[in-house]
């Protein structure tokens, strides 16, 4: 019997409060509100490409939690297994967008949020595992002991159910240190079927040194993943599938907002994998990342037609 979903995931989605490029948070009088979370960003992109997706989390039972649900539902993501809890808070983060030579700055206000209190008992496992691919990230694992246990349990159950496990390292230095993250993430990446990792994180967390191919070979020694995808910023991305190594250059892009491009890359890869083509996934991932960089907000709001146009390099200045 076929799975109900193409991709399911779990994690925290927050309110994002930002100022325009060139403005400072400490002088802000108004803030732009978006929603964003690594896992929900991935399934939002996939839903907009026509895939069947579901997202599991905990949210406060108030107007802010309902705003998240309404937004994801409008994007086509199934949110029926999200648990709404009274008297708790939603995670938020503030971002000061900047252009070179300054770096954008993020301030988290997510400690003790409803999602950070998630435990295995909050998850509808039958729902989560009724899927072709389960996508998880190291961000959720970093939110606390309960969330780490949820990720570990999800991996264990998925492997027992023969569901493909996709795992994105997604290191966040503001959530935990590199030494702790490397130690805690090793048993998780060892169980992944598909692994995502930034080249910089492969070096920092796992000591994988050298060029792209050498770093990815180091990751393969730590993981049983049949496909490993690494991103290298402006240099593009690469795939190691078995002993075959592929590189894909980044597309030229005028950057509007850097947040969410890694999640867009993961979504493109998973879209290709759902069609049985890991290399095409690499191409789609790089293209979706470029689309994400060209628009405001964490979620990459696109269509299958736009993705295909970018892949074909047909995108012009104006579509009339």
What does this structure look like?
Helix 1 packs across helix 9 and helix 7 packs across helix 8. This protein is of the alpha/beta class and 320 residues long. The protein is built from eleven helices and 14 strands. Helix content is 36%, strand content 22%. It is globular and about 50 Å long. The model has no long low-confidence stretch (mean pLDDT 93). The protein has a single domain (5-11, 37-90, 118-311), classed as 3-Layer(aba) Sandwich (UDP-N-acetylmuramoyl-L-alanine:D-glutamate ligase). Helix 2 links the parallel strand 5 (58-60) and strand 6.
Write down the overall mean pLDDT: 93
Strand content: 15-25%
Binned, the helix content reads 25-40%
Major sheet details: 8 strands, mixed
The CATH top-level class label: Alpha Beta
How are helices and strands ordered from N to C? Answer: EEEHEEHEEEHEHHEHEHHEEEHHH
Radius of gyration: 18 Å
Distance between the termini: 44 Å
> CATH H level: which superfamily?
Ribokinase
Task: Please identify the structural class as seen in this structure.
Answer: alpha/beta
Quick recap:
The chain is α/β, with parallel strands linked by helices and 320 residues long. The chain is 36% helix and 22% strand.
Supply database-style keywords.
4-stranded mixed β-sheet; 11 helices; 320 residues; alpha/beta; globular; 8-stranded mixed β-sheet; UDP-N-acetylmuramoyl-L-alanine:D-glutamate ligase
Give the arrangement of secondary structure elements.
Elements: E1 5-10, E2 14-19, E3 32-36, H1 38-48, E4 53-56, E5 58-60, H2 63-74, E6 83-85, E7 92-96, E8 105-109, H3 125-128, E9 131-137, H4 138-141, H5 145-160, E10 164-168, H6 178-189, E11 194-198, H7 199-206, H8 212-222, E12 227-231, E13 237-241, E14 244-248, H9 261-274, H10 278-293, H11 304-311
Parallel strand pairs: 1-4, 1-9, 2-7, 5-6, 9-10, 10-11, 11-12
Antiparallel strand pairs: 2-3, 7-8, 12-13, 13-14
Helix pairs in contact: 1-9, 7-8, 9-10
């Amino acid at each position: 019997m076929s799975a109900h979903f193409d991709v399911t995931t779990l994690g925290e989605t927050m309110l994002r409060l930002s100022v325009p490029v060139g403005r400072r948070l400490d002088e802000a009088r108004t803030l732009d509100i978006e929603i964003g979370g690594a896992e929900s960003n991935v399934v939002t992109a996939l839903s907009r490409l026509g895939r069947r997706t579901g997202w599991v989390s905990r949210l406060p039972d108030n107007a802010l939690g309902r705003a998240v649900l309404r937004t994801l539902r409008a994007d086509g993501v199934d949110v029926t297994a999200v648990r709404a809890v009274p008297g708790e808070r939603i995670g938020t983060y503030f971002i000061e967008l900047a252009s070179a030579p300054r770096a954008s700055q993020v301030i988290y206000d997510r400690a003790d949020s409803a999602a950070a209190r998630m435990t295995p008992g909050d998850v509808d496992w039958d729902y989560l595992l009724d899927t072709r691919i389960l996508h998880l990230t190291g961000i959720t694992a970093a939110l606390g002991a309960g969330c780490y246990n949820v990720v570990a349990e999800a991996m264990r159950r998925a492997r027992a159910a023969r569901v493909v496990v996709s795992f994105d390292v997604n290191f966040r230095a503001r959530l935990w240190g590199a030494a702790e993250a490397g130690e805690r993430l090793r048993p998780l990446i060892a169980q992944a079927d598909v692994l995502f990792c930034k080249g910089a994180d492969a070096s920092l967390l796992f000591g994988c040194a050298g060029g792209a191919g050498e770093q990815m070979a180091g990751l393969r020694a730590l993981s049983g993943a049949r496909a490993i995808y690494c991103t290298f910023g402006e240099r593009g991305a690469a795939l190691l599938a078995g002993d075959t190594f592929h590189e894909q250059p980044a597309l030229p892009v005028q950057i509007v907002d850097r947040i969410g491009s890694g999640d867009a890359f993961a979504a493109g890869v998973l879209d290709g994998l759902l069609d049985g083509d890991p290399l095409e996934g690499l191409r789609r991932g790089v293209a979706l990342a470029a689309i994400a960089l060209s628009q405001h907000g964490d979620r990459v709001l696109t269509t299958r037609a736009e993705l295909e146009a970018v892949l074909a390099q047909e995108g012009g200045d104006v579509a009339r």
